[in-house]
Amino acid sequence: MPQEAKMKKFLSLLLIVLLACTLAACGGKEEGGGEEESTGSDSLVIYSPNSDPLIAVAETFGEKYGINVEVVSAGTGECLERISAEKDNPKGDIMYGGMNYANSFNPDYVPLFEEYVAAGDENLPEAYRNFNGITTHYCLDGSAALLVNIKEYEKLGLNIDDFDSYADLLQPELNGKIAMGDPANSSSAWAELTNMLLVMGDEPYDEKAWEWVGEFIKNLNGVQLSSSSAIYKGTYEGEYVVGVSYEDPCVGLLVDGGGDKVRLVYPSEGAVWLPAGVAIIKNAPNMENAKKFVDWLISDEGQAEVAKTTARPVNPAISNTAKEMTPFSEINVVYEDMSLCGTNKKAWQARWTEMFTAAQ
Predict the structure, then answer these.
(1) pLDDT band of 322, cuts 50, 70, 90
(2) The whole model's pTM is what?
(3) Residue 165 half-sphere exposure, CB side, CA atoms within 13 Å?
(4) Average pLDDT, stretch 160-168?
(5) What does the alpha-carbon distance between residue 234 and residue 239 come to, in Å, rounded to a whole number?
(6) Domain boundary assignment for the chain
(7) pLDDT surpasses 70 at 49
(8) What is the pLDDT of residue 101?
(9) DSSP H or E run through 45
(10) Which of 282, 277, 304 is nearest to 130 (CA)?
(11) Which top CATH class is 43-141+274-327?
């Protein structure tokens, strides 16, 4: 056979082999579901009631991994309603914050989230580990934080140095001047209510505690805000004299230099710290990025970022950097019966709403 003909035959055979390999590779991609099947994603959509410093932690994650993090900020109730409405076609990937004990076990919410236990969860204190297969805890929220506008408080003829307790909220001078959220729709307001019920009776959660809550509602005189941020921001600006809030954003105001305008008080009767949770939305569009975020959040690196904020890391080995954070040794720390509160959440929310409505 002439040399030119041999070369043509060789090239033809080579072309056939290459074509066969290409077809085999395409077929393997369609059927195998291996790594070639995944196109990857550079996005992560987060629904969150968190304050700005904790939102910044999520943005730091995005910068580290080259992921475009979109945060939809709204109250806990609004976030959960949105996730529920989108359950057949999820738009979000993560619920970041608002996943407290009651929400985590609420039968209406559990089906909305993916079962996932983060890498490193076993290294957290036992009380703060993932207890239901969906919720990973990343920080501790101080649920009893009373923010007082110093100037407005003293304009009432009261001594700011004497304000140190829940009992002081019943002072008649404060009638209509206290900002409180709605425990039926706000996770921080719900945590505040359960803290009150824990410490304001002869026994935790007894009728005497509810009687005190009734007197407190009367002193609110109809003030009940739908936004957690409106409470501490309104108190800072002097719209309210006292804001019944939570620790993270209140300490943030102090860090930003607001110590001459507001004072943060932990009630002497006792203050609870609850683990804040993050969960992956069922069938999240960006599932791998969602898992990566949850893993990173409780890693040493993620916890170090949390420690830079005004929330307390869930990992006790990592300390906060903000000097404005009052150490636990100076606070009367008490511990909530989270199971009891979770079981009674709907009933207690309904009772608050009934009492608040009746007081009007």
Answers:
(1) confident
(2) 0.72
(3) 10
(4) 98
(5) 5
(6) 43-141+274-327, 145-273+332-359
(7) yes
(8) 63
(9) strand 43-48
(10) 277
(11) alpha beta
